[in-house]
Design goal:
This protein has about 130 residues and is an alpha/beta fold. The protein has a single domain, classed as Glutaredoxin, CATH 3.40.30.10. About 35% of the residues lie in helices and about 25% in strands. It is built from 5 helices and 7 strands. The strands form 2 sheets. A 5-stranded mixed sheet has the order 1-5-2-6-7, sandwiched between helices. Strands 3-4 form a two-stranded antiparallel sheet. A hairpin with a 2-residue loop joins β6 and β7.
Length: about 130
């Protein structure tokens, strides 16, 4: 399932992530774009790998943009608050039932860590090897 950029409120996203208990749900948190490009170098590095990883999967995957640099740096940024508790960008949050896990910053664009966090390769991913 291709990644979908969400414009839902943080509370609606949290509720949506927690409502899918049979399989994990994911939230990808990136820095916002300026002139079509993320201001965050780690986000730019991660985006193609994350897009490819989730392209043929069935899990719920939402993408949000945490803001421009000045918005992101504010302590009241909603993505820094519980239950998201994002400290660095990019971050992938995996919610299984009521368990929240995070893959953060350079670990997001480390293919081995990304694969381990998201789960086993799908049949289609394995065919491309």
């Amino acid at each position: 399932m291709p990644l979908q950029v969400s414009t839902e409120s943080p509370s609606a996203i949290a509720q949506s992530l927690e409502s899918s208990s049979s399989q994990p749900s994911f939230l990808v948190v990136y820095a916002s774009h300026v002139n079509g490009r993320s201001w965050c170098g780690d986000c730019r590095e991660a985006e193609p790998l994350v897009d490819a990883k989730f392209a043929d999967r069935t899990e719920v995957v939402k993408v949000i943009y945490a803001g421009q640099q000045d918005e992101w740096r504010k302590t009241e940024n909603p993505w820094k608050q519980a239950p998201f508790s994002v400290t660095n960008l990019p971050t992938i949050i995996k919610v299984t039932g009521n368990k929240w896990e995070r893959l953060v910053e350079e670990d997001v664009y480390n293919q081995k860590k990304l694969d381990a966090f998201v789960g086993p390769k799908t049949k289609q991913e394995q065919q491309h090897l």
